[in-house]
Hints:
6% strand
Amino acid sequence: xxxxxxxxxxGGGGSGQAPENTCVDCGRPFQIAAxxxxxxxEKKIPLPTRCRVCRRxxxxxxxxxxxxxxxxxxxxxxxxxxxxKLQKKSxxxxxxxxxxxx
Length: 102
């Protein structure tokens, strides 16, 4: 697991302007609003190191991974449930002589 890169602050903190940070994924500069900073500190969450676009895409990527995992689990359960039926059908086909069904 890679360590997150350090956030580079460019703006002045005392001037009322939010500091400008650089996204660790795309490298674009982004700002965090003062209200957001307060909210993160209030909830004791570290400040984001990704811009809003990269955070959203990472969120979607993680949701997609979890959903794919669940789909494969469901598929495996259904396949295991239906496998005895499939084996029974294939045995019936093998036992039926050709031309007997006509």
